[in-house]
Amino acid sequence: MKIIDFKTPARLEDAGRTLKELGEAGLLLAGGTSLVFNKGKAGRTAVDIRRLGLSGIKELPEAFLVGALTPVAELQEFRAKGWALDRVARAFATQQIRNMSTFGGNLARVFRWNDFPVALLALECEMTVRTLTGQDRPVRGSEFLAASPRRFLPDGDILTAVKVGRLASGWGFGYRKEVRTHADFSLATAAVAARVVSGRIVELRAAAGAALPFPKRLEKVESLLVGKAVPRKGLDEDAFLAEAREGCAGLPWKGECGFSDAYAAALAPVAVRDAVAAAVRDAQEGNHG
234 falls in which pLDDT band (50, 70, 90)? Predict the structure, then answer.
């Protein structure tokens, strides 16, 4: 793939119409870090939307509104009560890539190793898509991320923002990304949001990805762990391993980078275990709310 022309629309509506007119010859340009993965020899016209005001993080009472073009580095640096995505951003590639890559770019085109979709399933989220008619269409994150996002982004429609759940009092967040080397693509990713009350897990949302075709909520892991007692001190990560293994069993785990499917199936529950333990500790420390 090679870029043969650039378009720099002044308004979001103009960008949508340009993409619609170009069809398969058009390419939405945000951070530009995924261009290397575009195959083929056909020339494409890049539609640059970086100057259309789609970046920034706004605090809402029960959530955060994150612009689709917010650089991952900004997610890493942002601090607020109930904010958890800084931990995901720190594990995202290198600082140079975090400076360029955008939040929306990591969501609008799903590669198996993408970092943020798994975390958003655990935190819960809602996408905002600007349609060709100029309307803002909300899409539940669980639906948007369940398969290719192209289902919700026909030519001309653009992901503009994501509403990310804020962790309330009693909640904690854990994130685990298994890699071979620093800044490598993930072999298995897990994210967990847990609420702990009086030494017991009362709510839990768990998700996994990278070793699955698309990120997925782990409902069986959730049902196995809700109600489990957790000690205030001396928490043993392996206390969650049996539930993680049972809850992950039977899913279509896929190995990458020369690793077998059996290896991925063994690695994923370990990542889930670690994420659960991190979320429980975070909740017990009272870092949110």
Answer: confident
